């Protein structure tokens, strides 16, 4: 474990590098505990993202999908109408915190248990990495330019006014050299991408852009992968469309709970909804910055087949 050479005002917390990825110091103990103590079940479904790649959206989709018999997506009592998706799917590395930050206790969760995590593949719990474990991993990735812009807007919220000067350039330089939460972003994605090619039964790789383009088809893909495909009857009742509408940015971001509510561990629910679009980077990055990110993607992902 090595710490980041102190850079004035980089982040309100200290970053430490562990197994090649950067983490907030206050998360490290939780990550270690999770690595050693989490006992995966074959029926578990683990949603993985780099921060700002659409975690909230994927949580909503997977929750609605897995629970669609219990909670009709059109029901006025659906949990997504009164809870931020972050609350409905516990985060793996914080499920071992005591006292629980958001009341998460993984043991009584209904089967299949749904978890989310930002952990890179190398730091996944030992029980998940075992060759005889057949739990499912769903990785959602996003193009590096929009991911960076979204991350930058998130960073702004964490800073005091005086720490905001020159923030875009500073955050950009750090992101490019791999120093971002759970970064390097490119290594994070590449690890899961390779696994999805080698072991497609266990790892499904999704792209934010494709979910925006054709949410219905991506939902079907997700449903097939996690073993709960849509039946002919459900197709005829348009359940796919109902779920994608329920989980859409416009719908979720305008719900009262997501406009005014707070997560039990402090963040405003609204912080997880900003623009929800593809290509917002054009409004924030200079051509040189965009070029630089493209160049890094080329270098890092090379001929792996991972492109955006
Ligand atoms: P932007 O900042 O580009 O708007 P995460 O959930 O991993 O923190 O990612 C947050 C990003 O996903 C934000 O991107 C947010 O607006 C977007 N987002 C949240 N909910 C979404 C939804 N239902 N559909 C599409 N994008 C969504």
Automatic annotation (TrEMBL):
Keywords: Transferase. InterPro entries: P-loop_NTPase, Sulfotransferase_dom. Residues 42-305 form the Sulfotransferase domain. It comes from Corchorus olitorius. Belongs to the sulfotransferase 1 family. The keyword Transferase applies. This is Sulfotransferase. Its EC number is 2.8.2.-. The keyword Lipoprotein does not apply. It comes from the Eukaryota. It is an enzyme of class 2 (transferase). GO terms for molecular function: sulfotransferase activity. Pfam families: Sulfotransfer_1.
